[in-house]
Design goal:
binds protoporphyrin IX containing FE; Methane Monooxygenase Hydroxylase, Chain G, domain 1; mainly alpha; 18 helices
Length: about 350
């Protein structure tokens, strides 16, 4: 026997025999193999592999955010991982183009054999949604059964546990609430910001009043500014914000929203750069998943028209509802409404800049 240690072989390391032996077109079993079914299987398997990688990244973000101390390096690591997730999602959207090379007629050659299987039963997709923060009460319901009635055994247990666990949404909210920047010595962010907003609106009013406009045009523009003022007042009032949360118009707490606003406004401060990148990556992720949902609906429209889904939903009708309703970080995206130009940004006193330390402890 040779003393040479066994070398790792590509085929074994990647379990290629298992993976490459895992495509079994159902149409073949039924007697007449539909050529396109191989593509259909491989595309879905590729999706599931990428879902596995996305879960790997998201779970690591959850672990880092559950720690007692979230320091700058943790944020940097998470930003890198979220960027990776977003790049994968770009590929996942692109993969729809490949599946669309199959025509609806080709699909019908094997579609009937698939019922009642459906992407609706992808437990990994549900896990991604749950880890990001889409809990059952925020879902668009169809039919009488909850989405998890599609699962049993380990898959059901996992999904139900995730309904109860921390999500990235809830952990980010807590992290934002803990960031000690809202009130620092000599700098009350909300008060200063409100003053700047009023100054900005007053300047706009002055410009309108001195501009060469018809009375009607002037009144219209002044009314718009007034609406703007009311919007800012509503957002900056904790009482109004809490009411909006109760009414289901917003999910992120008042304190977390104000911290996110501060991070967005003062993103040029070196200490806030990584937090800003992180918040941006979450909004990006939300947009990418929505883009995937939208492209998936378009594909379903091409393949099925108005036919119902194999999973028993109304098909494209149900899926269209999820594009808007199944978002995770809308409140972070909406922060853009509150941006004011740098010329109105309250300048930070030196002591405040010095206080912008890197460590946010529980
Ligand atoms: C011919 C191509 C496809 C068609 C016609 C199709 C059709 C549908 C339909 C009608 C639904 C709604 C549930 C139902 O009643 O079945 C659905 C859900 C779903 N599909 Fe597809 N699909 C296709 C390809 C894919 C691919 C490639 C993936 C990738 C994993 C996928 C993932 C999903 C997921 C995750 C859901 C659940 C969405 C949700 O509930 O928000 N589908 N699909």
């Amino acid at each position: 026997m040779s003393d040479k240690p066994l070398s790792v072989h590509y085929i074994n390391y990647l379990s290629l025999d298992k993976i490459l032996d895992a495509q079994t077109p159902i149409s073949k079993e039924k007697g007449g193999e539909a050529h396109e079914e191989m593509l259909f299987i491989i595309i879905h398997q590729t999706y599931e592999l990428w879902f596995k990688q996305i879960l790997h990244e998201l779970n690591s973000a959850i672990t880092l955010f559950e720690a007692d101390r979230i320091d700058e390096s943790s944020i940097g690591i998470v930003v890198g991982r979220m960027d990776r997730v977003n790049t994968i999602l770009t590929t996942l959207v692109g993969q729809i183009d490949i599946l669309e090379t199959m025509s609806s007629l080709d699909f019908l050659d094997f579609r009937d054999y698939l019922s009642p299987a459906s992407g609706f039963q992808s437990h990994q997709f549900r896990k991604i949604e749950l880890i990001l923060g889409l809990k059952i009460e925020n879902r668009h319901q169809f039919g009488g059964c909850p989405y998890h009635s599609q699962f049993d055994g380990e898959h059901k247990k996992e999904v139900l546990a995730l309904e109860e666990n921390n999500s990235l949404f809830s952990l980010v909210e807590k992290w934002l609430e803990r960031i000690p920047f809202l009130k620092m010595d000599g700098f009350d962010f909300i008060k200063k910001y409100e003053q700047s907003v009023n100054e900005m609106l007053q300047k706009e009013i002055n410009n309108i009043q001195t501009a060469d406009l018809t009375d009607q045009d002037r009144d219209l523009r002044l009314k718009m500014i007034d609406q703007n003022r009311k919007y800012f007042q509503r957002v900056l009032s904790k009482r109004e914000h809490d009411k909006a949360m109760l009414d289901g118009e917003t999910r992120l707490s008042y304190k977390a929203t104000m911290s996110a606003l501060l991070i967005n406004l003062y993103r040029d401060e070196p200490i806030l750069h990584s937090p800003y990148q992180f918040l941006r990556s979450l909004v990006e992720l939300d947009h990418k998943i929505s883009t995937w949902r939208f492209r998936h609906v378009q594909m379903v429209e091409k393949m099925l028209g108005l036919k119902i889904g194999t999973g028993g939903s109304s098909g494209q009708g149900y899926l269209k509802q999820t594009v808007d309703k199944h978002k995770f970080f809308t409140d972070l995206a909406n922060i853009s409404t509150l941006m004011i130009s740098r010329s109105y940004l309250p300048s930070l006193p030196k002591i405040t800049k010095d206080q912008l330390g890197y460590n946010y402890s529980k």
